Amino acid sequence: MRQFPVSTATPHVLIVDDDADLLETLVSLLESCGYRVSAASTGERAVALATAPEALPDIVLTDIAMPGIDGLEIIHALRSCRRLVPIIAMSGGAPGYDALDMAKKLGADGIIGKPFTMASIVEMLDRHLARLAGI
Questions:
Q1: CA-to-CA distance for 98 and 117, rounded, in angstroms?
Q2: Under 8 Å CB-to-CB from 21, ≥6 apart: which residues?
Q3: Of 6, 9, 70, 112, which is least packed with CB atoms within 10 Å of its CB?
């Protein structure tokens, strides 16, 4: 099992994606890597989970293209309420629209295009959590 520094023991990751299969895969992967994971399939649920004082995540991994509140709105909502949690945005992109560039402009700490490897997601989360812990 992965060993985390004392300051980030069992990091809590909030994963947001409306693709049920990908969400399930990411939850299983990250739990097997030793993360504590919460999942949301809607932006509305994600904002509620990311701002609930009793269970604040250490990092948020969000899809961009979702019905209702999308990933860009999630980033905006978390930054507007001064939630400084690291946010990683993921997107498959759409012709003529660079969602990941917009995510960075709104305050995402990292971006990753779909399709991606599971190893790249774990590496990105580890890197951002290490930086948060000052490692």
A1: 20
A2: none
A3: 6
The residue range of the domain holding 124 is: 17-133
Is the Cα dihedral 38, 43, 45, 49 positive or negative? positive
CATH number, domain at 95? Answer: 3.40.50.2300
pLDDT digits 0-9 by tens, 58-71: 999 999 999 999 99
Total-model pTM? 0.89
Each residue's pLDDT tens digit, 31-42: 999 999 999 999
Strand runs labelled E in the chain: 12-16, 36-40, 59-63, 87-91, 110-113
Residue 121 maps to a domain: yes
- How many folded domains does the chain comprise? 1
Q: What are phi and psi of 111, to 5 degrees?
A: -135, 150
Q: Answer whether residue 12 is part of any domain.
A: no
